[in-house]
Amino acid sequence: MFPACRYSLQARRCVGALKAVQAEHVAPQVCSTRSSSSTLSRITTHYSVYPRDKDPRWEGVEMERFADEADVVIVGGGPAGLSAAIRLKQLASQHEKELRVCVVEKASQIGAHTLSGACLEPTALSELIPDWKERGAPLNTPVTEDKFSILTEKYRIPVPILPGLPMNNHGNYLVRLGHFVRWLGEQAEELGVELYPGYAASEVLFHEDGSVKGIATNDVGIAKDGSPKDVFERGMELHAKVTLFGEGCHGHLAKQLYKQFNLRGNCEPQTYAIGLKELWVIDEKKWCPGRTEHSVGWPLNRNTYGGSFLYHLNEGEPLVALGFVVGLDYTNPYLSPFREFQRWKHHPSIMSTLEGGNRIAYGARALNEGGFQSIPKLTFPGGMLIGCSPGFMNVPKIKGTHTAMKSGMLAAESAFSKITDENLQSETAGLYIPEYEEAFKKSWIWKELYSVRNIRPSFHNYFGLYGGMVYTGIFYWILRGKEPWTLKHNGLDADQLKPAKDCTPIEYPKPDGKISFDLLSSVALSGTNHDVPVAQNLAIYDVFLLHLEIETQSFSCVYEYVPLETGDGMRLQINAQNCVHCKTCDIKDPSQNINWVVPEGSGGPAYNGM
Question: Where are the transmembrane segments (predicted)?
């Protein structure tokens, strides 16, 4: 993520200039010029870095927000949030209760920010909506064939998938998860759930007693220099008896809540991966609807965790979804997950499927990989964490949708009991619902994650991938996770990079434009757009550190060095309009100097069934 790049000399020059500026007591700003002007432009304008109460441009601006109230507010219109909303309204209908449920979603449409493989295990769906087939759920491709392989540079070594192993997908469905989430949204609306796509929850609100009061949506009408436009409007406050946070992996509000309530005090740090995905229309003769193919090995070395998938979808055309996942605990700063993905597609067993095809979509997102050891405290006064926000992904299965949905359902059931209890006497203004955590520990999610808890950390050994596979074969397949020990992760992903001088540079082949592609053309296929073309969704605390650390080839061309207008150096430029919201810069940054925050509502990628 942060290699020592070819611009290191220019970066050092720019850092030198920045230090000179700092010595003159000027606010931290990027080394840049505009024509003959000596004005320095800020590379980030977020109010968490430049407070508005100290900015004279904000004097006299009306900052009061309109407030509305609901029984339950849900942040995030993904599988967890929508499942919680549906379950709440189901219970309200069964018990003839009036219950107002509001869901805020930062994407312009429900499902537009959703990206996953995806091979869906329908367990939770069948519990939530037993007649999902009759209701037209877009689960069009039952798995008919499983393949698993170890790849070398030129060969594919088949590995049998024994019954009971996590990669056995019998009974599962290959889906375009964005379409499935959109369908869940339709089911929620039919039940009376209020959906608000295009509204990004940017702030947690608190009662005077410290309990969560609700959320505030993002302000709109802010200029690229951080000043208010004439059309500036304050965000809206949504208050609730209880607020459910289902923002997805590494949620911006969840990060605040972890600190506010010390929710991670008794668990290991979360560990992550980056998943990159493409959709292709291929030659119909090569299309095998229902086939799943997974691989490990090349192009990654044995000590870099990762793997790939290739799914043949039955969506009315010869469509395949393929992707590459790299654990963000990698140690070589020269490694580029995007380029590894592009290189992987040139393996003979993959290229033979793609040749003659047409790539139609690209995207990327972070994944939780900490599993059982990294589950935080889920409840706090006024709120609960659900879905991929706390991290319930079953890493060996490469599945988290079913556990996310179930967590939302459990939270809904616990909340409904408390909200409708006429004799309830709450100690805090925001309801504290510990029953959710108790129900979670009694559920099949807890048992499932516990049984596979040691598989991911077992890869931290001298033999890496191969040692982990041997461990899985012996202790999971035979003992089903009942070994009397729990392995630990290696700590924060941000702490894992080695110095560049101790690592071997990686020479990546140039993309051929047929099988492999460059980053800019890939981002163009994600539909990514932000109204404000500046880093208002990337709060950089210390620009000096950023120059020392940043990568010129990120997953979406966000960070790069460009020539100064005077021609005598380079300056750092943040192309925030290219941010696909993968959040990897926030996670992997060695100094934790970057804070990803939500942009104006509806900004970001516009995925269509990713």
Answer: 459-479
Return the pLDDT at 11.
37
pLDDT value of position 116: 96
State the DSSP string of 53-103: GG-GGGTT------EEEEEEEEE--SHHHHHHHHHHHHHHHHTT----EEE
Distance CA 196, CA 231 (A): 21
390: which 2 tokens?
């706390």
Q: What are phi and psi of 194, to 5 degrees?
A: -90, 115
| Long-range CB contacts for residues 415-424, cutoff 8 Å, separation at least 24 | 415/72, 415/88, 415/242, 415/244, 415/384, 416/87, 416/88, 416/91, 416/92, 416/99, 418/242, 419/71, 419/72, 419/99, 419/241, 419/242, 420/95, 420/97, 420/99
Is the Cα torsion angle 67, 70, 72, 77 positive or negative in sign? negative
- Collapsing DSSP states into helix, strand and coil, what is residue 28? coil
Amino acid in position 71: D
Residue 55, Cα to own-chain centre: how many angstroms? Answer: 33
559 DSSP β-pair partners = 574
Q: In this predicted model, what pLDDT tens digit does every residue of 376-402 receive, in sequence order?
A: 999 999 999 999 999 999 999 999 999
370: Cα separation from own chain's centroid: 14
pLDDT digits 0-9 by tens, 107-119: 999 999 999 999 9
What sign results for the dihedral spanned by CA atoms 602, 607, 608, 610? negative
216 near 104, Cβ under 8 Å? no
pLDDT of res. 3: 37
In which band, very low, low, confident or very high, does the pLDDT at 76 lie, cut at 50, 70 and 90?
very high
End-to-end CA distance of the chain: 23
Q: Which spans in 525-591 are helix H? A: 543-549, 584-588
3 state DSSP class of 385: strand
Q: Are 560 and 552 in contact (CB under 8 A)?
A: yes
